[in-house]
């Protein structure tokens, strides 16, 4: 069985002092995650070291970054490398988030280059895919997401499947308060699982966690996490408060 992965994407929120406050708030509520539930927090790069220090006292909760470059080093102003993430103790990196695709011009090709580089250097990748409202209304959502998954995983070897996580994030549900229904989420996650079975062998594909992201909150987490192919959440807004984030962890725990 797959563990749940409850992941917080803090986006451009929480500098060093706010990171300290939020993670210490989480630590006051829980110092150890329950069996069957993995936790992950992804602060901005400048707060990674601070987060790494506090996370030493929270068993089962790991650290991730929100982006990485696909080159080793060099003249890439403003970027960070896989080696830098390894050094700070970041186990995961989020790649291909729709905000990076939209605001920073990340194409499927760039996302694929980042995925390959991250896996090569030992990082676990949370690969984000999802359709726009226009694509859903035009009934193109499955095609869009299928293509994104296939493109992101081009050239990824079967042995790396254990380091791959997919996050299905319909763009129309991100930060809007509008969530995919449990049925919509399950339908897409099942489709993604079938795409993974075409990329990897069936056993490897069955082990990959597929997260849902898009206005997941304590009040709707249970019905989403109950779906057979929803293995956790990539949570924005609700991960910025210690009580709502830990509440979602508790909900996952009850479903294990
Ligand atoms: O990466 C997280 C997603 O973009 C979801 O954000 P949200 O929970 O604020 O809608």
From TrEMBL:
Which GO biological process entries does UniProt record here?
gluconeogenesis; glyceraldehyde-3-phosphate biosynthetic process; glycerol catabolic process; glycolytic process
Active site (record annotation): 97 (electrophile), 169 (proton acceptor)
Q: Which residues bind substrate?
A: 9-11, 175, 215, 236-237
SUPFAM superfamilies in the record: Triosephosphate isomerase (TIM) (SSF51351)
- Where found? Cytoplasm
A cellular-component GO term for this protein: cytosol
Involved pathway(s): Carbohydrate biosynthesis; gluconeogenesis; Carbohydrate degradation; glycolysis; D-glyceraldehyde 3-phosphate from glycerone phosphate: step 1/1
Q: What is its EC number?
A: 5.3.1.1
Report which reactions are catalysed by this protein: D-glyceraldehyde 3-phosphate = dihydroxyacetone phosphate
PROSITE patterns, A to Z: TIM_1, TIM_2
According to its UniProt entry, the function of this protein is described as:
Involved in the gluconeogenesis. Catalyzes stereospecifically the conversion of dihydroxyacetone phosphate (DHAP) to D-glyceraldehyde-3-phosphate (G3P).
Subunit organization: Homodimer.
> Which protein family is named in the record?
Belongs to the triosephosphate isomerase family.
Q: What is this protein called?
A: Triosephosphate isomerase
State the organism's lineage: Bacteria, Pseudomonadati, Balneolota, Balneolia, Balneolales
